[in-house]
Amino acid sequence: MTEKPVVLMPEDIQRIMGKDAQRNNILAAKMVSEVIKTTLGPKGMDKMLVSPVNDIIVTNDGVTILDEMQIEHPAAKMMVEIAKTQESEVGDGTTTAVMIAGKLLENAEKLLDKKIHPTIITKGYGLAARKSQEILNEIALKITPENEDVLKQVAMTAMTGKGAEGFKKNFAEIIVKAVKQVQNNGKIDLKDIKIEKSKGDGIKDTELISGIVLDKEKVSVDMPEIVDNAKIALIDFPLELKNPEIDTKISISSPEQLQGFIDQEEKTIKNMIEKVKMSGANVVFCQKGVDDFAQYLLSKEKIYCCRRVGRSDMEKISKATGGKIVSNLGELNSSELGNAQIVQEIKHGDDTLTYIEGCQNPKALTILIHGGTEHVIDEIERAIKDGLGDVVSSLKTGLVVPGGGAIEIELARRLRNFGQTLSGREQLAVEEFASALEFIPVTLAENAGLDPIDVLTELKSRHDSGERNAGLNLFTNKVENVLEARIIEPYKIKTQAINSASEVAIMILRIDDVIASSGKGGSMQGMGGMPSGMAGLD
Ligand code: ADP
Ligand code: MG
Fold it and tell me: Which atom of ligand 1 is nearest to the CA of 160?
């Protein structure tokens, strides 16, 4: 008698189990961290990313690189998620987070080779991660919104080596001023700081506008170019003859009837514009369309108008000028209008922008980035966003830490001490965790062409002798007190990076079975999404 085989899964399912699964996932994670490693720190290199339609991005921003690479391997994708979380939670530190995760997994592999069971490793990593948070809480430095100098240093550290180099002092001023202006009872929403870009002038012309800049021109050339003492109406319905969203059908049997209908429609528009005028408005921002007849009437009244202004811009203008967005004209009166010293149309090269400037105590404003080419402007934008994210994050927690690897070395030192209180095997895991953190200063040194072993040895011995702020200063290429050298980072960068890196490392280490339908994922085939030659960039 022959037994029938039991079929659990269809034949095209790929399955990798045990050690193979682990090694395969670790390899993929390591590859991801290898790719971005060379971009870490102020001396890191940039990458040129070319999309299938030949769009080019030149950047050293971790999350941008990983995003553009279209990675497919499932474990590698989990690494990319770390960068994305870091970006949304802090706005900076994406390379650091991914590198720590990669190194945690690489070091775990060493322990696996020594036949240490994954559960011991994940337990040790978990303990070390929790201890790291404790240590960070203990050694972070407190700051208040009044410490503007420190905030500027945080912004400058974030922008060091990012194409904004020569101008980072100006940018830091702009960033800190912007953040302080939009903060509301200690709450800060980054959405209140608009970043607008203008191609034409130089990077040095980048400016903070106390108001909103729109990528829009006025609807008619007959409208005034400049309106002083602007009274701004914000309306979210169309100034048009017919609402095109409503399908209307009219039966007309004579020319008189048609004329009558048109007259009626025109009268409605005339009424609308009359109401706008009566409110005292001399500027109108309309979220919907404004037709020719309405444009003509507005021009006649010397009212400046932009149409199809996006909802988020409407809200920003409202916050900046104090005007209310109205949904029917009955509501529109002088008290609903926003105020600005000046509204004007300005041309920069090919771009025509509308400036709403000189707002009193605006709760939303604009950083207008100028630059010669799109690639330059985009990289400056990423640098400024890093600076903004770091300043906001420092203010939110009120805590900062020394950069240049100082905090990582101090953490590693204290983690090793902590490890000694644990049983033998977990101690090994905690030690590997500590050395994963040391990978940050090691890489900072390597990317600057310094000898990583010399640097690490010096850093460790200085910390052992109590210099907890000793870090690698890449302005001087020396190990010194980085607080004095003004290399300062937000506390949240480190807590978030260590948290998500260890979570993902632990998750990947727990996997001992990869079951992939459609033949993907289980094999290295998934890495096929990475542009070939990318690995060769290192
Ligand atoms: P991430 O994506 O992780 O933010 P970066 O390329 O921005 O990566 O590099 C951040 C690292 O560079 C941090 O460890 C920070 O302390 C370090 N760093 C910044 N400025 C300096 C400096 N002047 N000297 C040494 N290290 C620096
Ligand atoms: Mg950074």
Answer: 20
Atom 19, ligand 1: residue with shortest CA distance? 157
Residue 117 has φ and ψ, to the nearest 5°, of: -70, 140
Residues in the chain, overall count = 538
The total of other beta-carbon atoms located within 10 Å of residue 318's CB is: 19
81-123: pLDDT as tens digits: 999 999 999 989 999 999 999 999 999 999 999 999 999 999 9
- Cα dihedral sign, 317-320-325-329: negative
* pLDDT at residue number 206: 94
Question: What pLDDT, in 10s, does the model give residues 311-355?
Answer: 999 999 999 999 999 998 888 899 999 999 999 999 988 889 999
Structure pTM?
0.86
Contact 452 CB / ligand 1 (< 6 Å) = no
Residue to mutate (ligand 1; options 33, 96, 472; most atoms within 8 A of CB): 96
Own/partner contacts of 219-223, CB < 8 Å, gap of 24 or more, are 219/290, 219/295, 219/298, 219/305, 219/306, 219/307, 220/295, 220/296, 220/298, 220/299, 220/305, 222/295, 222/296, 222/299, 223/295, 223/298, 223/299, 223/302, 223/303, 223/304, 223/305
Say how far apart CA 514 and CA 516 lie, in whole Å: 6
Average pLDDT for 470-495? 96
Task: Choose the residue to mutate in 47, 160, 491 for probing ligand 1, maximizing ligand atoms within 8 Å of C-beta.
Answer: 160
For the question of residue 95 being annotated catalytic, the response is: yes
Distance 161 CA to ligand 1 centre (A): 8
CA–CA gap between residue 167 and residue 326 (Å, rounded):
41
Spatial CA neighbour of 505 closest among 151, 72, 79, 2: 79
User: What does the pLDDT look like over 505-528, one tens digit per residue?
Assistant: 999 999 888 888 765 544 444 443
Among 93-102, 265-274, 286-295, which is the least confidently predicted range? Answer: 265-274
Active site residue 61: yes
Q: Could you tell me if the CB of 338 is within 6 A of ligand 1? A: no
Domains in the chain (CATH in brackets) are: 13-142+401-517 (1.10.560.10), 145-164+175-205+365-397 (3.30.260.10), 211-245+253-361 (3.50.7.10)
Ligand 2 center to 92 CA (angstroms): 5
Helices 18-37 and 491-510 cross at an angle (nearest 10°) of: 150
- Per cent of the chain over pLDDT 70 is 94
CA distance 319 to 517: 50
From the CB of residue 265, how many other CB atoms can be counted at a distance below 10 Å? 14
- Tell me, in angstroms, the distance from the centre of ligand 1 to residue 30's CA: 21
Q: Is the CB of 41 under 6 A from ligand 1?
A: yes
**Residue for token digits 């009212």?**
303
Nearest ligand to residue 385 Cα: 2
The pLDDT confidence band at residue 125, using thresholds 50, 70 and 90, is: very high
